[in-house]
Amino acid sequence: MNISNVTVRFGSFTAVNSVSLEVPAGCVTGLVGESGSGKSTLARAVAGLTPYQGTISGGERGRVQMVFQDPYSSLNPRMSIGDAIAEGTRVPRAQRPTEVAQLLELVSLPSSYAGKYPRELSGGQRQRVAIARALAAHPDVLIADEITSALDVSVQGSVLNLIRDLRTELGLTMLFISHNLAVVRYVCDAVAVMRHGRLLESGPVEDVITAPRHEYTRTLLDAIPRLAHA
Fold this sequence. Notes:
2 domains; 9 strands; single chain; alpha/beta; Rossmann fold
């Protein structure tokens, strides 16, 4: 996917200012920055949820799926897990139960969970369901927007491990949004750093972390001593 000179404005406020970024096929590209940097707004533009100026190519609308930060609000409480996942599938109705079971197993949940409701699941389990629902559409690009920040620390690692496994198994192309460079380093192949709506630098994740070119990136690294001296 290629993002070229994308700008997002809300009235007189420019949330994303002429950002260009390549998201290579089969790779996980991290988008990192503090709250208000414009990273989530850019993600919503890529997903077709926010109007923008510029060009986004390589991921047709409907072929870009997004997993949101809050697993408690992203699922319909009145809809069973199986029905929620089946909404996104492209297979005939008769094949949907089998497809749903396979998707649940893909995110390490029992197929029997298809009959459960969101209130019966933990936060980590709900986020796994949200990932399965996004994968049901066989997206060209999967966007993960701060998908662990609302979860207990005890389950964050298991969800990140799932993302790594899915990348390997499915060859996913992913835009992974986080404020945490340690998380980005663990999950991503490349990283782009945003601040105040602008892209400051980008490149292979190890290159950016070991030899940051911008002072702001160094500030983010200094906030994580283990990374700064790795």
